[in-house]
C-alpha cells in the first residue's frame, strides 16, 4: 500500500483526501516509480476545482521525481534503479505510483530530485513558449506576467540568456525584488502600477514583441495594449480566471495582433520532443543560465495548505511536496 492524495468530487482544497492505495505491478509499457519529490502546479488546482475536468475519482498532481522500482513488458530505455522525473501525467500525489514509461525522463548527474520535480513542468512550459510558440531572438523585448512565480523565474532567466530584454510583472515589493534578481531588466508591480503604460514607457512607445500571460482574465486586455503591431499574446494559464474574447475585432483595432492558447500536451505529444525540451532545460540549469528557486516545501499530507497558498498567490518560485 502507498499513500496518495485523491479527489472524489470537484471543489476547493478541502476535497483533497489522503488515502492508502495499492500500487500494483506495472503492466505493458508502464514503470513503477518510488517518488522522492512532487512538484506543485496551477494545473493541479484547475483539475481539483473541475475547471479542467478529469474522470472522478482521480489522484492529483502532474509532476514528480524518483527512482524506478519495476518495469512492465515492452519497456525499453528505462530500467530499475534509474532516477527519473515526469510532467503532464496525472497521479503524481503519491509515495509510489505506476506511470507510462514513455513519459519518464532520465535525470542527469548534477540535478537532484527536488530540483527535477520543481522544474520539469514549469521549465518545459518555458521551453515551448520561448523556443516554439514564439522563438525569442536576441534584441527582442518580451513581457512575462507573474515573473516571480515558479514558471516565471525559470523563463525570465532563460529569456535573458537568449539576449532578450525582459519586462516582468509581479505583485508586491518582495516579488518585484525576486523577479529583478532572476533575469528581468524591468519589473512592474501590477498591484500598484499601470503595467501597459509602463511597458510603453520602457519600450519608447513601441510595445513588446510578445506577451507571455499565465494570469488570464485579469491581465488579458492590458496585455493586448502592451504589444507592438502584429505582436503575439501567448495565453497559457488562468490563475485569475478564464479568458473569453467575444469580439475578435479587438485584435484588429489594437494592431493586427495574434493570440494563441498553447499547452504542453500538444508540444510534447512525441517522446522525442519531450526529451529534446528536457535536455535543453537541464543543460540551461547545469550551465548556470537558470538558477532554480524552491520557495516552499510541504509534506504530502499538507497538500491542501499548499494549494491554498498557491491560489492566494502567496508563493514565489517552485513549491515541492515531500512524500
From TrEMBL:
Pfam families: ADH_N, ADH_zinc_N. Residues 11-321 form the Enoyl reductase (ER) domain. One of its GO terms (cellular component) is cytosol. It comes from the Bacteria. The keyword Oxidoreductase applies. InterPro entries: ADH-like_C, ADH-like_N, ER, GroES-like_sf, NAD(P)-bd_dom_sf, QOR-like, Quin_OxRdtase/zeta-crystal_CS. One of its GO terms (molecular function) is quinone reductase (NADPH) activity. The keyword Oxidoreductase applies. Keywords: NADP, Oxidoreductase. PANTHER family: QUINONE OXIDOREDUCTASE PIG3-RELATED, QUINONE OXIDOREDUCTASE-RELATED. This is Quinone oxidoreductase.
Amino acid at each position: 500500500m502507498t499513500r496518495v492524495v485523491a479527489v472524489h468530487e470537484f471543489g476547493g482544497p478541502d476535497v483533497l483526501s489522503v488515502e492508502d492505495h495499492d500500487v500494483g505491478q506495472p503492466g505493458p509499457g508502464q514503470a513503477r516509480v518510488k517518488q522522492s519529490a512532487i512538484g506543485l502546479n496551477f494545473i493541479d488546482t484547475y483539475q481539483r476545482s473541475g475547471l479542467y475536468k478529469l474522470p472522478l475519482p482521480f489522484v492529483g498532481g502532474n509532476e514528480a521525481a524518483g527512482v524506478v522500482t519495476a518495469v512492465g513488458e515492452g519497456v525499453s530505455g528505462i530500467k530499475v534503479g534509474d532516477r527519473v522525473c515526469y510532467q503532464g501525467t496525472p497521479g503524481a500525489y503519491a509515495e509510489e505510483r505506476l506511470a507510462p514509461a514513455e513519459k519518464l525522463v532520465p535525470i542527469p548527474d548534477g540535478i537532484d530530485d527536488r530540483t527535477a520535480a520543481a522544474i520539469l513542468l514549469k521549465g518545459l512550459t518555458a521551453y515551448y513558449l520561448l523556443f516554439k510558440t514564439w522563438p525569442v531572438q536576441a534584441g527582442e523585448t518580451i513581457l512575462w506576467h507573474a515573473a516571480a512565480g515558479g514558471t516565471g523565474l525559470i523563463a525570465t532567466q532563460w529569456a535573458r540568456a537568449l539576449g532578450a530584454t525582459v519586462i516582468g510583472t509581479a505583485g508586491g515589493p518582495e516579488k518585484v525584488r525576486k523577479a529583478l534578481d532572476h533575469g528581468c531588466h524591468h519589473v512592474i508591480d501590477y498591484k500598484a502600477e499601470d503595467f501597459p503604460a509602463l511597458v510603453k514607457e520602457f519600450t519608447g512607445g513601441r510595445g513588446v514583441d510578445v506577451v507571455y500571460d499565465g494570469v488570464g482574465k485579469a491581465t488579458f486586455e492590458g496585455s493586448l495594449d502592451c504589444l507592438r503591431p502584429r505582436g503575439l499574446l501567448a495565453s497559457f494559464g488562468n490563475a485569475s480566471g478564464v479568458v473569453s474574447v467575444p469580439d475578435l475585432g479587438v485584435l484588429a483595432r489594437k494592431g493586427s495582433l495574434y493570440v494563441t492558447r498553447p499547452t504542453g500536451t500538444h508540444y510534447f505529444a512525441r517522446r522525442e520532443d519531450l526529451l529534446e525540451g528536457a535536455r535543453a532545460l537541464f543543460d540551461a540549469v547545469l550551465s548556470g543560465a537558470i538558477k532554480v528557486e524552491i520557495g516552499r516545501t510541504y509534506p504530502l499530507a499538507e497538500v491542501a495548505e499548499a494549494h491554498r497558498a498557491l491560489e492566494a498567490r502567496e508563493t514565489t518560485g517552485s513549491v515541492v511536496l515531500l512524500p
